Amino acid sequence: MKTIFAKLAGTLLALTLTTSLASAASKVTVAVGGGACLCYLPTVLAKQLGEYEKAGLDVDLVDLKGGSDALKAVLGGSADVVSGYFDHCVNLAAKKQELQSFVVYDRYPGLVLVVAPSHNKEISSIKDLAGKKVGVSAPGSSTDFFLKYLLKKNGLDPSGTAVIGVGLGATAVAAMEQGQIDAAVMLDPSVTVLQGSHPDLKILSDTRTQHDTLEVFGGEYPGGALYSTAAWVAGHPSETQALTNAILSTLVWIHAHTPEEIMAKMPDEMVGKDKALYLAALKNTIPMYSETGKMDPKGAEAVLAVFSTGSPDVAKANVDVSKTYTNTFVDRAKGTTGASSK
Q1: How confident is the model at residue 312 (pLDDT cuts 50, 70, 90)?
Q2: What pLDDT is recorded for position 15?
Q3: Closest alpha carbon to 141 in 221, 198, 84, 200
Q4: Cβ(272)–Cβ(278) under 8 Å?
Q5: How many CB atoms are located within 10 Å of the residue 190 CB?
Q6: How far is residue 150's CA from residue 50's CA, in Å, rounded to a whole number?
Q7: Strand partners, 164
Q8: Among candidates 30, 33, 69, 73, which has minimal Cα distance to 51?
Q9: 334: pLDDT strictly greater than 90
Q10: Using CA atoms, how far apart are residues 237 and 305, in angstroms rounded to an integer?
Q11: In terms of DSSP bridges, do strands 57-63 and 26-32 run parallel, antiparallel, or are they unpaired?
Q12: How many other C-beta atoms lie within 10 A of the C-beta of residue 297?
């Protein structure tokens, strides 16, 4: 932890120098694709730490059921920015809708394909999901994309598996325990919560660590990020920079503090009654969080490759993935003091 802190220490000063403290805070609405999910913790923690306010922003976090719902909020004009998975930017680019990610907080997606406890005996591999009911946070969300990719990769027709939206938190755990679905794509803390009650929980695919992510995708695969329409980013450079500064400062804070200290800052309703399980899930998740905020171009290409494999429309669209993200705001935050942005 000391090594990581030393690596990032200069960033806090850089953020202070690059943030313009306006006399009146700019109002920004951020739609979150499931705030209780640890994959989105940096977005919520930034609010708890007061980082948005320090950056000169009045941020309203709107908690929605899944990433697809958060995306709809921005496309529909009821929110300015999405806190969700970067893969939506690539998927929408194939449909000629320009979205742009500007700061990445998850370097791994953290998606886990889990078998419902009552179906352990009949499901032992991904191939066994043919004709089954599989839960995702919401149809069209990143959990859904991940499921379709795994099915296709294992020689199955994704349309042969019933996809059911079950959310990401307690509703997903309940659907699994009650046998309403046969399996589900979940994220922490839900996976760890389920393991607490079912130690023999069967996991078919896990992308919470670098090793497992490389195993599934063949390379690193960026997950959670802040993104918006390219037009909003271009038209609101000050707000985009301030959001970037707030997230970067939060990432520095995360890697300089213990899991216990991080948990203590989170809202009680997100931690829940079983703090031990939440803490265990948080410890599993911390390696996911970026140390730089930057998009790895190879990671972005990996997302495009995954979608091209699973979607003929994306494969035919000749997507220029470099237009779906920018590292300009991260570089600007760190560049003022020469802080490393590797």
Answers
A1: confident
A2: 52
A3: 84
A4: yes
A5: 27
A6: 39
A7: 135
A8: 30
A9: no
A10: 30
A11: parallel
A12: 12
Tell me the pLDDT band of 73, cut-offs 50, 70 and 90: very high
> Does residue 24 carry a pLDDT above 90?
no
Read off the pLDDT of residues 223-254 as tens digits, 9 standing for 90 and up.
Answer: 999 999 999 999 999 999 999 999 999 999 99
Q: In what order do the strands lie in the sheet with 99-104?
A: 57-63, 26-32, 81-85, 224-229, 99-104
Give 202's contacts (C-beta < 8 A, 6+ positions apart).
Answer: 114, 115, 120, 123, 124
| Two tokens, residue 19 | 């943030």
- Residue 172 pLDDT: 93
Question: DSSP E strands: which ranges in the chain?
Answer: 26-32, 57-63, 81-85, 99-104, 112-115, 133-136, 162-165, 183-186, 203-206, 224-229
Tokens of 234: 């271009």
Structure token pair of residue 209: 């660590």
Question: Please, what is the average pLDDT of the chain?
Answer: 89
Q: Tokens 């069209």 — which residue?
A: 140
92 token code pair: 């929408």
- 268 pLDDT tier (thresholds 50, 70, 90): very high
CA atoms within 13 A on the CB side of 70: 32
The identity of residue 119, as a single letter, is H
pTM of the complete model: 0.82
Residue 234 CB partners (closer than 8 Å, separation 6+): none
For 225, phi then psi, to 5°, come to -155, 165
pLDDT in tens, 171-207: 999 999 999 999 999 999 999 989 989 999 999 999 9
DSSP-derived pairing of the beta strands 99-104 and 224-229: antiparallel
Alpha-carbon gap, residue 174 to 177, rounded angstroms: 5
Residue found by looking up tokens 């390696």 in the block: 287
- Tokens 């969080």 identify what position? 289
Look at residue 19 in the predicted model and tell me its pLDDT. 46
100 and 325 Cβ atoms separated by less than 8 Å:
yes
| Gap between the Cα atoms of 298 and 54, Å rounded | 33
For residues 166 and 168, what is the distance between their CA atoms, to the nearest angstrom?
Answer: 7
